[in-house]
Amino acid sequence: MYMRTLLLGAAGAMALATAAFAERGADGEVKVLYWQAPTTLNPYLSSGTKDVEAASLVLEPLAGFDDKGAIFPRLAESIPTVDNGGISKDLTTVTWKLKKDLKWSDGTPVTSADVAFTYQYCTDPNGGCAQAASYEGIKSVDTPDAETVVVTYTGPKPYPYAAFVSALAPIIQKAQFEKCIGAAAPTCTEQNFKPIGTGPFMVTDFKTGDVVQLEANPNYRDPAKPAFAKMTLKGGGDAEAAARAVMETGEYDYAWNTQINPDLQAQMSATGKGHFVGGFGSLVERIEMNQFDPSPDLPEGERSTAKHPHPFLTDLKVRQALSMAIDRQALVDVGYGAAGKPTCDLVPAPEAYAANTTDCLKQDLEGAKKLLDEAGWKMGADGVREKDGKKLHILYQTSTNPVRQDIQTLVKGWWNEIGVGVDLKNIDASIYFGGDAGSPDTFEKFYADVEMYANNFNGTDPEAYMTQLLCSKIPGPDSQWQGENIPRFCDKDYDAKIAELSKTADLAKRQALVKELNNMVSAKGLVTMAIVHRGNLSAASNMLDGVAINPWDTEIWNAQDWSRKK
Fold this sequence. Notes:
- The protein has helices at about 50-55, 110-125, 175, 190-195, 240-245, 260-270, 315-325, 330-335, 365-375, 400-415, 430, 465, 490-505, 505-525, and strands at about 30-35, 65, 70-75, 95, 140-145, 150-155, 200-205, 210-215, 230-235, 255, 275-290, 340, 380, 385, 390, 395-400, 420-425, 450-455, 530-540, 545, 565.
- The chain has 14 helices and 21 strands.
- Helices cover about 20% and strands about 20% of the residues.
- The chain is of the alpha+beta class.
- A hairpin with a 5-residue loop joins strand 2 and strand 3 (about 70-75).
- The chain has a domain at about 280-535: Roll (Dipeptide-binding Protein, domain 3).
């Protein structure tokens, strides 16, 4: 139904490896580079993509999404549907059956109790779960026998493929994590750094913010896979250096998220050692507008919380002016080339759900100035507007990345032109996306006025993604700063439409509701200011076979199928 666009002749079009490997581990070691270094291997404690992706090599869900966006079983025997009896006719219950004889990497059996425990772990009221949106609306998770899981929802659930589906919602072992529930979750270092899993690899050593050493899982359900006996997943550095390590030096086999400009892409491709792989999914670079006050003058624990609304970003005219000042096409040209498209929408794909808003695509500096005048912000002698003794001055933060710093510089210049003062801050990605409740520099804590990053949703249905912006999902001290509602957006009408979406089965109505929600928060509301629809772009060695980049789940979703070209 949905076409996946490939970039630069990407090898993502390559068919999945179907021939069985001669034996597990026959191809030695594969070296993977994630320049945003993982800081945990528990995706329930971090919504950072680099943590979710690294963990996916070890922890698996009941089902995942392939590179075309189609759902397929992982630990489940099959995908439950109404037709096969796995989903009740009233759409309130979903019955999953585990594959026979599944084992954890420690050799113990995987049972339905592990699945039920995973739900309890993420929904414990005394803890914070970075993936809570995946389990929204569940009434109970029952286990009538060791291989059966029955998920009951509080009402009809037309799209039930979020709970226990995709790398965002993997199954964790009850025996390993049962003492790590609630407030204890972040204290369990051994469990969070070395989870026992069912995936193709198992962790042998993890130096947080540096390197993950893995070896083939001896109990993986396909006895011939993975082809590699070991994997080294190295973190740190920057996107350009990561790309060079594959494309020029050949030191690594695969480099994730090679966010480099078009000229560098062309230069590196000319070496003949590697190729860029990519595809457009739902990934959007955005600038979040903090609706709460992050001022350091406030007491710790009250910054970026509901106790203190933001002094000027709660004004729609200010947000509109900031958006109007941006030339989104220029950002694409400078930073992404064929790997980007200008967008106004939080949900730019799949096409059926995309609002295709165009209002923001033309830069209008004079219009932005007029809006700020109307909002009462008068130009000061220093070129920065002020109102009621308050300067229109913004702290703008993002992760350390040459492309993002280029974008920051361009945006700062445009905002300066309309009378907005801007300070720029960039933070090491392993910290920014690390989810450490004790750090002041995580994107969840949001101790800045605006911040920039990219995010997407797994699969092709955006319900769980849009659910992240419920009032109840706002991070704060009571949730150990976990929560997906980064801009601190809270609107009872938005919450009501999410409730309606969760009960709506008619596809056309679901699509219309998603477009309305998109407009409320992004295209019109501009709390989440979408700027670039990004293609996933990574680098693969010409000697690495089986790579099929996936914009709908983790891009290393089929690492068990990778092999060394002979």
